[in-house]
Design goal:
Layout (H helix, E strand, L loop, with lengths): L6 H10 L12 H12 L19 H4 L7 H14 L5 H15 L33 H11 L3 H8 L6 E2 L8 E2 L10 H8 L3 E4 L5 E7 L4 E5 L1 H8 L1 H12 L1 H15 L17 H4 L4
Helix pairs in contact: 1-5, 2-4, 2-5, 4-5, 7-10, 8-10, 9-10, 10-11
Bound molecules: ligand CCH.
Ligand CCH binds next to helix 2, helix 7 and strand 1.
C-alpha cells in the first residue's frame, strides 16, 4: 500500500507488469493502451456523456459491449496494482496504464493528471455503439471522432496507435498485427500504410481486411478498412504523409491528442483538481 496520491509508486508497478512472456507478443502494453482509449472514447461532447470518469467498463452495460471484447485481459493485468494501491480509482488506473505502457514501449511522455472518479453517474452512461467500427470508412471515422471534438489531424495522430498490438479473430473478428514489431512505439504504421501494396482479403469468418505478405519476416501484416481509409481521403492523407516522414512530429502530436482523449469529460479548476467528479461516493482525487 502506497501513500494516498503517490502516483509515482503506481506508475512503477504498472511498468513492472509490462513484461508478460505468455501473452500475445510478450507485452501487456498494447492491450493496456486500448483499455485507456476505450475507457475514454465513448465521450459525446454535445450531451457531455461517456468518457473515462466512472470506469463504466466494470459493468456489463459497457464492459459487455462487443467493441470492448478482450479488454478484460488489460483489467486483469492491472488488478494487482489496484490491490496494492487501493486508494487509486479504476478510472485513473486505466488511463494511467495506457500512458505508462506507451512510454515503456518507447513512445512519448504523455501528460496525465489524476482525479477521475469511480462513481457511476447513471445520467452520464454512454449507450453502446460509440466506439469506431473497423469495417467502415472515412465518413464513419469523422462521425465518431468529431463527436468527441477531434479534428482530422487528431484522428490521424490517434490512429498511429495501431503501430501497437494486434487484432484477434475471437475479439474483433479481424486478425493480425499492423507492423512487424508491435510492442515498439514508432511511426512505422504510417510508413507501411504508404509504402506497401495492400490487398483486400476475406477471412474464413467473412470479415474483410487488407493484408501484405512481408518476405523478410515471413509474416502477413494487416490493415483495417478504417486504416486504409486514411490514405484514400485527401485531408487525412496529408497527415499520414507528414507522420510517415516525421517521427518527432508524430510523437509530439500523439502525446497531445492522447492526453486530450483521456481528459474528455473531466473538468478541472486552476489547480488541476477535478470539479465534476463525485468523489464522496467515487473515490479519491489528488
Ligand atoms: Fe484500435 N483497434 N481502432 N485504436 N487499437 C484494435 C486494436 C487496437 C479501431 C479498431 C481496432 C484506435 C482507433 C481505432 C489500439 C489503439 C487505438 C482492433 C483489434 C480493432 C478492430 C481488437 C482485437 O481484435 O483485439 C478503429 C476502427 C479505430 C478508429 O479509429 C485508437 C484511437 C487507439 C489509441 C489511441 C491498440 C493499441 C490496439 C491493439 C490491442 C491489442 O490487444 O493488441
Amino acid at each position: 500500500m502506497s501513500k494516498r496520491g503517490d502516483f509515482e509508486a503506481v506508475r512503477k508497478d504498472i511498468a513492472k507488469l509490462m513484461h508478460q512472456p505468455e501473452y500475445d507478443d510478450g507485452s501487456a502494453g498494447p492491450v493496456l493502451v486500448r483499455l485507456a482509449w476505450h475507457s475514454a472514447g465513448t465521450y459525446d461532447a454535445d450531451t457531455d456523456t461517456g468518457g473515462s470518469n466512472g470506469a463504466g467498463m466494470r459493468y456489463e452495460a459497457e464492459g459487455g459491449d462487443p467493441a470492448n471484447a478482450g479488454l478484460q485481459h488489460a483489467r486483469v493485468f492491472l488488478e494487482p496494482v489496484k490491490e496494492k494501491h487501493s486508494w487509486i480509482t479504476y478510472a485513473d488506473l486505466w488511463t494511467l496504464g495506457g500512458i505508462v505502457a506507451i512510454k515503456e514501449m518507447g513512445g512519448p511522455e504523455i501528460p496525465w493528471k489524476g482525479g477521475r472518479t469511480d462513481y457511476v453517474d447513471d445520467s452520464k452512461l454512454p449507450p453502446r455503439g460509440r466506439l469506431p467500427d473497423g469495417a467502415q470508412g472515412s465518413d464513419h471515422l469523422r462521425f465518431i471522432f468529431y463527436r468527441m471534438g477531434f479534428t482530422d489531424q487528431e484522428i490521424v495522430a490517434l490512429s498511429g496507435a495501431h503501430n501497437l498490438g494486434r487484432c484477434h479473430s475471437d475479439r474483433s473478428g479481424f486478425e493480425g498485427a499492423w507492423v512487424n514489431n508491435p510492442t515498439r512505439f514508432s511511426n512505422q504504421y504510417f510508413r507501411l500504410l504508404l509504402s506497401l501494396q495492400w490487398r483486400k482479403k476475406r477471412l474464413p469468418n467473412g470479415v474483410e481486411q487488407y493484408v501484405h505478405y512481408d518476405e523478410d519476416s515471413e509474416a502477413e501484416l494487416m490493415m483495417l478498412p478504417t486504416d486504409i481509409a486514411l490514405t484514400q481521403d485527401k485531408s487525412f492523407r496529408t497527415w499520414v504523409e507528414l507522420y510517415a516522414r516525421d517521427k518527432d512530429r508524430f510523437f509530439e502530436d500523439f502525446s497531445k491528442v492522447f492526453s486530450k482523449l483521456i481528459e474528455l469529460g473531466i473538468v478541472r479548476d486552476e489547480d488541476g483538481k477535478v470539479t465534476n467528479a463525485d468523489n464522496e461516493r467515487g473515490g479519491y482525487h489528488a
